[in-house]
UniProtKB/TrEMBL annotation:
It comes from Rhodocytophaga rosea. It comes from the Bacteria. Residues 5-311 form the NAD(P)-binding domain. Its EC number is 4.2.1.47. Catalyzes the conversion of GDP-D-mannose to GDP-4-dehydro-6-deoxy-D-mannose. This is GDP-mannose 4,6-dehydratase. It catalyses: GDP-alpha-D-mannose = GDP-4-dehydro-alpha-D-rhamnose + H2O.
Amino acid sequence: MKTAIITGITGQDGAYLAKLLLEKGYQVIGLSRDLLNCNVKNLEYLQIAEKVHLIELNLLDLSRVSRVIEKFEPDEIYNLAAQSSVGSSFDNPIDTLEYNTTSVANFLESIRKINSRIKFYQASSSEMFGYIKEENLPIKESLIFHPVSPYGVSKASAHWLSVNYREAYGMFTACGILFNHESALRGENYVIKKVINNAVRIKNGLPAHLQLGNLAIKRDWGYAPKYVEAMWLMLQDDVPGDYIICSGEAVSLESFIHKVFQQLNLDVEKYVSINPGLLRPLDLPVIYGDNTKAKKELGWEYNLNTDALIHTLIEDEMQWLEWNLSQSFASQSKAGI
Ligand SMILES: C[C@H]1O[C@H](OP(=O)(O)OP(=O)(O)OC[C@H]2O[C@@H](n3cnc4c(=O)[nH]c(N)nc43)[C@H](O)[C@@H]2O)[C@@H](O)[C@@H](O)C1=O
């Protein structure tokens, strides 16, 4: 039986990846910064909370990172933990840089010293590319980075550290350069979850109003459960590499929102307004990628267009809301309310 360590297991990608690896027969060790206060709702929703082994670990503590690797002797490590909000990175640049880079250095150093055959996956991000000239779209793996946020800078640094250990020590480090990917398990601070969640609430007669920032931006949005399959595929290959994982399609936030409200037969003008406080100091106007390398070399499959993605996200959100209602109903009955 293979053993995998997943950092950031309680987040969207961590939970979906844990489910995938359990289905493939792995023993899954999940790392969390704060077990007492961590939210295991995503794991409970996917019915895997009892099946993963959760460990509390501060990834900034090199000796403890090493100890966990020595104890569990993993075949694969998926490093998904990060301060992952681009917007918050402008408010907390130092914490973002420290956490997103030191944690990666701690893993790479530990692997190098303990067992350099352990395969390491690093969650890189399309935000590393930053400003892009029109002629460089769609983005390929070879494009030079020019990040435009402290988050993008931190991810670029962690990416190059991973590549450096691959080249300097022959270690198996693979970097998945993921573009925006969404699901019902996404945090509510991300824009697509915010839009879909509010639209579905409105459809169900619940109070909601949607305040948003820059609607003109164009992004390459995809479906998270399909993107975690690519992470696993990267570590099954014989040769490590860097892969862009994206849909290949760019759509503006404004058009995405219109499509969501259209699919739900709702009047967008009635519920959506702009809040200038949600604009970022710098924002990428447009970004979309080319997933040819991942499809060709890893055999990764992805064929959801924007309409199909929206349809799936709406269906998933309805189930998620229903599950949440049943959970609060169950806890109220337990408390005798
Ligand atoms: C690839 C990358 O993907 C994610 O980062 P993100 O792109 O910042 O995601 P988001 O959903 O916060 O913003 C998308 C766009 O939408 C604009 N936008 C407008 N109005 C609101 C709004 O109201 N809220 C938010 N959050 N964004 C808004 C916002 O200005 C931005 O242009 C993370 O997974 C990150 O870890 C990662 O690696």
